[in-house]
Design a protein that fits this description.
Strand content: 5-15%
Bound molecules: flavin mononucleotide
CATH superfamily: Flavodoxin domain
Distance between the termini: 13 Å
CATH topology: Rossmann fold
Number of domains: 1
Helix content: 25-40%
CATH architecture: 3-Layer(aba) Sandwich
Radius of gyration: 16 Å
Number of helices: 6
Shape: globular
CATH class: Alpha Beta
Order of helices and strands: EHEHHEHEHEEH
């Protein structure tokens, strides 16, 4: 059996972002349970704010096509989100909105089909006590709307400024175990429903 390919990214491009640390923390766990991981930074996929006129005049931005192709070539997604005003970041929404748009010249690798029936796992982090868990509801809903199979297991890491050990893992053993469980389950589901 070939390893399921999992694409990992965070919903913040801030230097020292907690969500980036959380995304980085799950990568070795995914690898340890047999996944092949591509860990990207959305800073490398800069896109303009979605605008229908821009799309009509210029089509999809090159970085949207790059990311659609990347999503299409992976078996699952893992997103670590911050929480902005109880929801996901404008960066995440913009990226997902652009990627949900069809490119008429490349229907098999653009639009909703790149997400459809693909497993996903979601994580959140925040300096606050709730760990951004309200953003998880929005992200789960949005990914479900796109047709993704979001696994029920999720993790919200609160007090994120103190949550990470020097080696990048989660300092709380229960949280680290929960993260490993999510990595394992996503990998299993990705392997079982891979197209
Ligand atoms: C516009 C804005 C809204 C925010 N709203 C929330 C919020 O609803 N809940 C929360 O826990 N933190 C909130 N924060 C604080 C973020 O959790 C904090 O800035 C965090 O470090 C951002 O994520 P990052 O570290 O991954 O960049 C907000 C921050 C910004 C800039």
């Amino acid at each position: 059996m070939t390893a399921p390919k999992i694409l990992v990214f965070a919903g913040s491009t801030r230097r020292d972002a907690f969500s980036q640390k959380l995304a980085a923390a799950v990568v070795p766990l995914l690898k340890s349970v047999g996944a092949e991981v591509t860990h990207i930074n959305l800073a490398d996929f800069d896109m303009p704010l979605y605008n229908g006129d821009l799309e009509a005049e210029q089509g999809l931005p090159p970085n949207t096509r790059r990311l659609q192709l990347l999503i299409a070539s992976h078996d699952a997604l893992l997103i670590a989100t911050p929480e902005y005003n109880g929801s996901i970041t404008p960066l995440e929404l913009n990226v997902l909105d652009w990627c949900s748009r069809a490119d008429k010249d490349n229907p098999a690798t653009s639009g909703a089909v790149v997400f459809a029936d693909k497993p996903a796992a979601i994580l959140s982090s925040s300096p606050g006590p709730l760990g951004g868990m309200r953003a998880l509801f929005h992200l789960r809903d949005l990914l479900g709307y796109l047709g993704m199979v979001v696994i029920p297991q999720q993790l919200a890491v609160g007090r994120a400024g103190e949550a990470f050990a020097a080696d990048g893992s989660l300092a709380d053993p229960r949280q680290q175990a929960a993260l490993e469980g999510i990595a394992r389950r996503l990998t299993e589901v990705a392997a079982s429903i891979r197209k």
